[in-house]
Write a structure and sequence with these properties.
By secondary structure, the chain is α+β, with helices and mostly antiparallel strands. The chain is built from eight helices and five strands. It has a five-stranded mixed beta sheet, sandwiched between helices. Helix 1 packs parallel to helix 3 and helix 5 packs across helix 6. The longest helix has 35 residues.
Length: 246
């Protein structure tokens, strides 16, 4: 009977009937205690520890199960908030939090940090002529290329639509430009595997760097300005490539 009542308490906890479970546990433990006293008065020997073990395990298991469930639910909510649903990349809001943190560290440690901004060229044409599902697939493929291109500790986010931002830890301007070339080459290699009408797909990429060791002393004044500089460089890259027929 004691163990069965312990199962009842556990079930109440799992159903999130916290108040009912707590009251039930108290009533059951008191009832078992007085019941044990009556049994002892009749010279029937019952180990009190065994008698109370059922309700106790029910309460302990219920609390543990609920705590784990809440932890997993909160973790799931956190993942939904910081990750883009379509690509699995981080959201821009999360990247900005990391960038703000890194900016302060870079100021103290005198190390550089770079931002890379990328978007798909003629993406609207892809949506208009081949459909939005093809456009969505191109976004997912682009996200996969970027994941392949970065180091394990860099942060990739979807900025919105067909735009992406990559936070390159401890990368100076020369390293950011070298990364841009590698990323573009990886994308073009991926595009060659697509349907014929998509094989000429290309990307525009802008870079910007905050480097406390910059010899000329010119640096963005804050993280937002760093992102804006990368955006301007992206537009410049797009315009230059258009003029050159790229």
């Amino acid at each position: 009977a004691a163990w069965l009542t312990g199962m009842v308490v556990l079930i109440l906890f799992l159903l999130r009937r916290f108040l009912s479970a707590c009251v039930s546990a108290a009533v059951i433990i008191l009832g078992l205690f007085f019941g044990a006293q009556l049994l002892f008065n009749r010279d029937l020997v019952t180990d009190v520890f065994v008698l109370l073990l059922g309700p106790f395990l029910g309460v302990a298991s219920g609390i543990t199960a609920n705590s784990l469930k809440l932890l997993l639910e909160n973790k799931g909510l956190e993942t939904k908030v910081i990750q883009d649903k379509m690509t699995g990349l981080y959201t821009y809001d999360f990247l900005r939090i990391r960038l703000d943190e890194e900016w302060k560290k870079c100021e103290k440690s005198k190390t550089p940090v770079s931002i890379v901004m990328m978007d798909l060229d003629r993406f609207k044409k892809i949506n208009d002529t081949l459909g939005h599902e093809t456009g969505n697939e191109m976004i997912r493929r682009t996200a996969s290329v970027i994941k392949e291109s970065v180091r394990g500790y860099d942060v990739i986010s979807r900025y919105g639509g067909d735009e992406f931002i990559i936070l390159l830890w401890h990368a100076n301007f020369s390293e950011a430009k070298a990364y841009r070339d590698r990323l573009r080459n990886l994308y073009h290699a991926m595009a060659k595997t697509l349907a014929p009408e998509l094989q000429d797909s290309s990307v525009s990429i802008g870079v910007a760097t905050f480097d406390p060791n910059n010899p000329d002393g010119t640096n963005p004044k804050n993280p937002q300005e760093l992102v804006e500089e990368a955006d301007k460089d992206l537009l410049s890259d797009k315009e230059t490539r258009r003029k050159n027929g790229g």
